[in-house]
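[SOLVED] Need 3D model of a five-part complex

Original post:
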Amino acid sequence: MKPRLFKKSSQKTGMSPGTIVHIGEKKVDRVTIEVIEYDESNFTSKRVESIKESIPLKEKPAVTWINITGLHDIDLIRKIGSAFNVHPLVQEDIVHTGQRPKLEDFDDHIYIVTKMIFVDPGLDEIIDEQISILVGKNFVITFQEQKGDVFSAVRDRIVHGRFRIRKLGADYLAYALMDAIVDHYFIVLERIGELVEELEEELLNEPTQKTLASIYGLKRKLITMRKVIWPLREVVGNIERDEIQFFESSTYIYLRDVYDHIIQTLDTLETYREMVSGMLDTYLSSVSNKMNQVMKVLTIIATIFIPLTFIAGIYGMNFEYMPELKWHWGYPAVWLIMIFVFIAMIIYFKVKKWI
Amino acid sequence: MKPRLFKKSSQKTGMSPGTIVHIGEKKVDRVTIEVIEYDESNFTSKRVESIKESIPLKEKPAVTWINITGLHDIDLIRKIGSAFNVHPLVQEDIVHTGQRPKLEDFDDHIYIVTKMIFVDPGLDEIIDEQISILVGKNFVITFQEQKGDVFSAVRDRIVHGRFRIRKLGADYLAYALMDAIVDHYFIVLERIGELVEELEEELLNEPTQKTLASIYGLKRKLITMRKVIWPLREVVGNIERDEIQFFESSTYIYLRDVYDHIIQTLDTLETYREMVSGMLDTYLSSVSNKMNQVMKVLTIIATIFIPLTFIAGIYGMNFEYMPELKWHWGYPAVWLIMIFVFIAMIIYFKVKKWI
Amino acid sequence: MKPRLFKKSSQKTGMSPGTIVHIGEKKVDRVTIEVIEYDESNFTSKRVESIKESIPLKEKPAVTWINITGLHDIDLIRKIGSAFNVHPLVQEDIVHTGQRPKLEDFDDHIYIVTKMIFVDPGLDEIIDEQISILVGKNFVITFQEQKGDVFSAVRDRIVHGRFRIRKLGADYLAYALMDAIVDHYFIVLERIGELVEELEEELLNEPTQKTLASIYGLKRKLITMRKVIWPLREVVGNIERDEIQFFESSTYIYLRDVYDHIIQTLDTLETYREMVSGMLDTYLSSVSNKMNQVMKVLTIIATIFIPLTFIAGIYGMNFEYMPELKWHWGYPAVWLIMIFVFIAMIIYFKVKKWI
Amino acid sequence: MKPRLFKKSSQKTGMSPGTIVHIGEKKVDRVTIEVIEYDESNFTSKRVESIKESIPLKEKPAVTWINITGLHDIDLIRKIGSAFNVHPLVQEDIVHTGQRPKLEDFDDHIYIVTKMIFVDPGLDEIIDEQISILVGKNFVITFQEQKGDVFSAVRDRIVHGRFRIRKLGADYLAYALMDAIVDHYFIVLERIGELVEELEEELLNEPTQKTLASIYGLKRKLITMRKVIWPLREVVGNIERDEIQFFESSTYIYLRDVYDHIIQTLDTLETYREMVSGMLDTYLSSVSNKMNQVMKVLTIIATIFIPLTFIAGIYGMNFEYMPELKWHWGYPAVWLIMIFVFIAMIIYFKVKKWI
Amino acid sequence: MKPRLFKKSSQKTGMSPGTIVHIGEKKVDRVTIEVIEYDESNFTSKRVESIKESIPLKEKPAVTWINITGLHDIDLIRKIGSAFNVHPLVQEDIVHTGQRPKLEDFDDHIYIVTKMIFVDPGLDEIIDEQISILVGKNFVITFQEQKGDVFSAVRDRIVHGRFRIRKLGADYLAYALMDAIVDHYFIVLERIGELVEELEEELLNEPTQKTLASIYGLKRKLITMRKVIWPLREVVGNIERDEIQFFESSTYIYLRDVYDHIIQTLDTLETYREMVSGMLDTYLSSVSNKMNQVMKVLTIIATIFIPLTFIAGIYGMNFEYMPELKWHWGYPAVWLIMIFVFIAMIIYFKVKKWI
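Solution:
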């Protein structure tokens, strides 16, 4: 039902490091490979069946972007691994979808793990999908768990040809892909922002035990998002700071922009976190406030009628010698006393501001 | 109604980076451009219609300050961008009003994002407005979202001519503008200080559920302010530390002064935060205290009258053979017993310090 | 009963430093020594009785792995100590099982303390076992408290001979052993993950005082795990950063992998910690919610019947002159009044949304 | 009434930086200037009317200490400013009493802001007073808000002449003054320590709503003190670390001593803070404990008498055919039943440990 | 009664720095001076009356350990001060027992402040005692507040002569003394561990208001210990890192061992702290749980009998025309109704799982 908090990997225990086993759900039936080549004047895009066709592309001066959707074809990963000289541990990480966002710098390429986030509409849960990016001198390889439209805007800009992206290298493409992922975070943030506002509304009107569950659900979403975005901050910060190879200095200003967006996301998450904790307090306080009101009603009713019932009880006694019972005005007098007690009580409560 | 916690930017998702789209409310109808030129002996100020007129000013040795109010005229931003060689991403940031305060250092100029804060009198909410400052060798360009009087004191000092500002360069002007913004924070802080005192008063007298809402409103204001001021601290600290170009060392002492003010603001915010959290505790404790009092009244009344009613109930029974009912002093005796029980209870409560 | 939170070491107070005393439970009867030698083409494995036999192995170019199970044979430790030139303080630490994970760099070898974690099935407690690793130029010596299968996967890979491990040196063996230990953490994490889910289920259905105890038990487990894993992070990080001797740079990428796993473990622990604290809040809120419901029932019943009983009490009084008692329709009229009061109360509660 | 949490400075908004405006209460009527000159063999002390007389002292090799009490004479500040070449911003800070403790290093002198703390006996509030110290090659100028005896011990030691202070330079005098201020903190700490103990006593005996207010008052005092002392730690630490000019290395050990005292103060504040938070918990728990006791009494009384009253009610019914009413032993039998129920209830409560 | 949280030092306010005043309790009547001299082959130990005798020892190549018990003999401190060239501020710190653990490096010697901790059996409070250690080229001077057996194990090892300590220098002696102090911490930790377990037991069985006080007592003990041990960590860490003079590199591995022990102590303290905070929550939750049970009993009794009493009240009315009263089966019918209501209520509570 609920997405597991961390991907089962105990089945891998004891295996040799670098053993490539797909950990995670199989989200697509068939692995698809899309190869896009472009330079300032040319553009080709094709779907290939096997990775052999794409290897010769490696030597050309143009930029080659290989986008692989679906991670369960271990053979394919291995072929790409040997074609592009990818370390077995990296191959392992590509298919093991429980990685933290990170950056690893090798001689031939750098390996970046990022996470896409989206709200599963059915379950109203945050789902994260691992997207691995290999960046080399003139190629970028992306590995997605499933078909998504997050990269389509980048693809469109390459197709149109009039954008900056066609004039720049693989590093700019890598940036553009990361930017697309981070931009997507804002969509999730907006959905969460709406949830926050809905919950605040609900809290003001009719908070129930279900509201509490929703607040915790929201908190859980924020924790999940933070866990995914926080390490990405370091990844992008590192590229900037350490002058990672393949990234030209003209791309740095764009990376700084992505970095700013990540910081903004984290800022907003932090603000939401504080608001959610305020909501919890409000919920608990409103529950105890209701309790108070219930108690007050009980107290007022009981405090008024218990003494009156006592008075009635007195004159319900069967003693032979009770002179009041014989008095002609006894009954009205008792009524007067009772009304007096009643009014006194009401005034007392008014003074105490209970009613 | 309430200002959104973060500016919608999902509409930008998928656009090419550097695409200049105004994000934020359109707060003025017409964009106005004010150009002020001055050196120690001369001063001119004019409103221009288009930015072309101001470009030749760029080469003069005097200081030129271009103040632009209103951000929705994308064309104008683009013209300024190409006139002053402003990077497309910076142009994007100028019109996208959801930036965090930051400083970016380019060859020709430095770009500073700051935030004005004011209390919206109607909604009693903290509103922040983005003010971008471009500082070059002999010019400063400021971008405001709407007309405000925050810079008028600076303008006045330039007009009067007898102040230090006329003798110093663009870096001092940039400092003076930042100083004006930070000084404005103190006005908001004072308003918040008054709110804190009002709420403390209210807490002591008659706390209601509305008081709780006000406390959370206050907390929210403090979070918003902190979010805006905290990164500014780093911005000003960086200028000082990293010896950013265009800023002369004689200006550093002034920046240190601004830095001190920012730290003071944050200190005060922190103190308010601690006070607000103390207020929350006080509120909750006063609510539970009231509950206690209600419960005590109920307990005292019920504990006194339930046994008395029982006694009355005993002698309301209709058994044929109840000797007490026949006794001549039965009735007064029951009254004596009841009065005794009553007094015993009262003494018990006195001993327990409940009344 | 419960594992003690820290191993008694007061019995050692006042002893000379370097005095080798076994602190901790004696978990095996006989100490066993297993000596494995291998290079790319050869492999021998034997159980030895005494450590003298293994000393000549030290000079060979192949890798020698000496695995010692059981720490109470002080003599053996001392012999190994003098054979491999191990500092007395290190000998002391090997047998004193209360160490924190740490790394110490000596001239002839490095000394690494790690901790195995497993869930004791009977007590449902986290048990940690100290595993010391001595790494030299061409040998690795491991000290385990008891027989366990954590290293068997590594042993198998050495036996099979087709894996990378046979081609690489002692540093890779040390890495493989640490990797096996860290992989084992995930199994414990999964068990804890199940516990978290079970508890969440229990919380939703029928939380009892026992649930609270389980939540604290879980919290205690998380604290224990964190205490053991946190310093290990630094140990592995240090090898990478400080370029510890004996570790070749080609092994660094594997260490980075272990490091990533440790960080993932800590991340997951942190997430669990936040969830457990959320569970606590949920528990307390659900308890107070139940209380609320109980109070409401009491209030509704009391508030309805106390006034009615008062009315009945009125007409139970024995005054001689009570005209209502004589009326023919008095009794039905009282019933009507009572039914009216009853319905009015019910409507009131409906309006207040209490029923 | 209560001291404002931060000094109003909005009245300064828009003024040119370096504009000298006294912010803070005017605490003395007349500004007094005391000039003390000393070297190992000579000592003179006089009150001067105007600052001109003291300027020639500046060149002498002896140490000159000018102590100014009262900050509202802007003219005087300005004269001193030009005589000793004090930067306008520093002049501004001297008279604006809302500064944080800080140290600024100029060519001719260093500027230190410190804060005196004392407990206002009437209001039982922590009051802080700003003391600015200007340290030059052979002079020290101190600016106090009001007359106080904090410096009199230093003055006495100079007068007596047999102390170390007469043999050493202006840096030692500056140290001695800071030491005097920090020593004063301990007096305030002791007063707070007494308050803590009084409150703990009160909590154990008879906590009331007023106790809660006192706890928060204490917390507020601790916050105020921490806010003032924390930055001072950095000030003194900086002198030591950065080898600030005018301070000779032989003075460093004395500064380290002051530093240690500040750390001790902060340690003690931290301990008090933890104790105060424990007191809050104790208070809340004792309130809820009392509530529990009240509830128990109510429950016991009601639970005993409600069933008994019901029994009495049964035999108060007026059915014609109620055989028990005719029985001769009916009435005693009912009493027996009631006594039995009573005793059963009491035993039940005893078993439940409620009484 | 309770040990004061910080030693009174206000009596020192205004004194010249370096004024030697004993602050703290006078814990022994007579100050004793023990002088131990040893090298690999010789050993002498004597009690001396005055410090003059020990001065000539200073020049010998053997190690001299002077152990002074009792700090109130100011003259003695001063004599040692001038004999060993101890800075007046250090002399002041030796006799002022409120110091934080620290290390100060002088030309002739280093000065280390440490704290012994023990549990006062009568008051069950943590008492700390200041132990100052002066380490020079070939001497160590220790200052204890009172007679204790913490150093006797070190003395024994020197006497026996077969231990490493006789072969090594003053730095090893200083290490051995610090090690003895830190080893002692574990004894206190064990006592606290027992307290934790006792309290956990008590919490499970019969928590009372006294349990709460014990929990806070425990918390206070942990705070005190942490305050004393935390700075010691830095002291030992500094010796290692900064290569303090007099300490030879062969001693560093021993210091690292002490450092590890301190970290272990702090780790355990942290774990205890988390457990104590869990105990607080458990206590509060168990209190509110009891309250719940009390409320349930009240509710069940009241909810059952209030309606029944009402029914009885109905037929206790004295209307002349109440047909039910005349019915022959009226009385049994009422009983049937009442029993039905009773059973219905019980079923309702069963369904609600209240009983």
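Edit: The two ends of chain C are 49 Å apart (CA to CA).
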